[in-house]
Inverse folding.
């Protein structure tokens, strides 16, 4: 009965590699988000999609490319990983007119 | 620009009351949210204010003053499980519905 799920939960990789994180929600929501939480626990929005359409791109490097194959899924592909990409990445979703965003469990990315 | 300030850390005793303040300066305002985040877990929604005043929900209450750019989260009858980070977030506009988060307040409840 998981609402927002992410895979993988942990990801350890080398600098320069390319990796993907997946997010799925079974809440029937229209809008999905990617957030990055750094080592100081600061949570910052990266992208938002509404019905598979990109609506927010917060000046994230173009090494990060989100993809939404359908409104229940929002994936994040990262090219040429850098040390500074180490963080926890949270997916979230909500209805288009709802107030509350529901967060996934997070993906802990460590770039060595 | 967007600026949201919270104290970094607070401590309190089990059974006590604690107030966590949040001040904000944002390009627009369409609601303020409080989220709770336990260590290693996802943020979970606690409260939402869009009009001035106090919203009460069990042991937790949240207050908003839009003219002062100020909110607080009040936690009563503190329990050990309330030890967590509390994130204040502002929704700056009606359009894209993004949230801008503060840096969070880490609350430690001791016996």
């Amino acid at each position: 009965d998981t609402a927002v799920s992410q895979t993988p939960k942990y990801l350890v990789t080398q600098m320069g590699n390319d990796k993907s994180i997946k997010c799925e929600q079974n809440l029937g929501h229209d809008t999905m988000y990617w957030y990055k939480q750094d080592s100081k626990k600061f949570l910052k929005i990266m992208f938002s999609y509404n019905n598979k359409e990109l609506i927010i791109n917060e000046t994230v490097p173009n090494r990060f490319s989100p993809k939404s194959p359908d409104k229940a899924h929002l994936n994040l592909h990262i090219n040429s990983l850098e040390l500074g990409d180490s963080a926890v990445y949270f997916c979230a979703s909500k209805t288009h007119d709802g107030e509350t965003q529901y967060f996934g469990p997070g993906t802990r990315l460590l770039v060595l | 620009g967007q600026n949201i300030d919270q104290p970094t850390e607070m401590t309190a005793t089990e059974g006590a009351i604690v107030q966590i303040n949040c001040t904000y300066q944002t390009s627009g305002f369409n609601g303020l949210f409080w989220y709770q985040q336990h260590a290693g877990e996802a943020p979970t929604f606690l409260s939402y204010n869009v009009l001035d005043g106090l919203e009460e929900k069990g042991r937790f209450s949240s207050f908003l003053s839009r003219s002062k750019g100020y909110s607080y989260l009040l936690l009563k009858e503190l329990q050990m499980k309330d030890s967590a980070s509390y994130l204040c977030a502002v929704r700056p506009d009606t359009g894209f519905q993004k949230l801008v988060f503060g840096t969070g307040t880490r609350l430690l409840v001791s016996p």
Q: What stands out?
A: DSSP finds no helices and eleven strands in chain A. The radius of gyration of chain A is 13 Å. Chain A touches chain B at residues 4, 31, 33, 40-45, 48, 55-56, 58, 90, 94, 96, 99-106 (CB under 8 Å).
